[in-house]
Amino acid sequence: MVDLSLEPLADELRSTRSVKPCVLVIFGATGDLTRRKLVPSLMGLSKDGLLPSAFAVVGFARRPWTDESFREVLADGVETFGRPDTPAHFAEQREAFIYHQSDFGDAYGYLKLKQRLEEIDRTRGTAGNRIFYLATPPSAYSLILKNLAAAGLSSEQGDRFSRVIVEKPFGRDLDTATALNSQVSAAFRERQVFRIDHYLGKETVQNILALRFANGIFEPLWNEKFVDSVQITVAESIGVGSRGSYFEESGVIRDMIQNHLMQVLTLVAMEPPAAMTADAVRDEKVKVLKAIRSFDPSKVDRNTVRAQYTSGSFGGEDVKGYLEEDGVAPNSTTETYAAVRLKIDNWRWARTPFYLRSAKRMPRRATEVAIQFKQPPHALFEARKAPTPNMLLLRIQPDEGVAMRFGAKVPGPDVRIRDVRMDFRYGTAFGSETADAYERLLLDSILGDGTLFARDDEVAEAWRIVDSIVAGWAESDRPPATYTAGTWGPPDADALLRRGRTWRRP
Question: Is 89 a catalytic residue?
Answer without folding.
Answer: no
